[in-house]
Amino acid sequence: MLEAAVPETPNFVDRRQSSGARTDGSERRQFINARQAGRPEVQELAEAVDQYKLRHRRRFITFEELFDVMASLGYHK
């Protein structure tokens, strides 16, 4: 009986342990480029979102969480 040839798969590379990781403990921020927009309200929102994400250990936030951040800055409909 012939056995089917199993293609050889490359070894798994764990990129989380790569040498390109930040060594200073900082994390890439989602809105870092928005701070250069020149609009103070955009800068304020970006900073508030980043602070929320740091406090709650979140990499990404939901729309509901974004609304909560905006409401904390005084937005209301």
Provide keyphrases for this structure.
77 residues, mainly alpha
In total, the number of strands is 0
**SSE sequence, one letter per element:** HH
Sheet with the most strands, sense and barrel status: none
Any idea what the shape is? Answer: elongated
**Average pLDDT for all residues:** 78
How much strand?
A: under 5%
Radius of gyration: 21 Å
Low-confidence stretches: none
What is the secondary structure topology, with strand pairs?
Layout: H1 40-55, H2 63-72
Structure description:
The protein is an all-alpha fold. It has a domain at 44-77. The protein is 34% helix and 0% strand. It has 2 helices and no strands. It has helices at 40-55, 63-72. The protein is elongated and about 75 Å long. The protein starts with 39 loop residues before the first helix and ends in a 5-residue tail after the last helix. 1% of the residues are buried. The model has no long low-confidence stretch (mean pLDDT 78).
Short description:
It is built from two helices and no strands. With about 80 residues, it is mainly α.
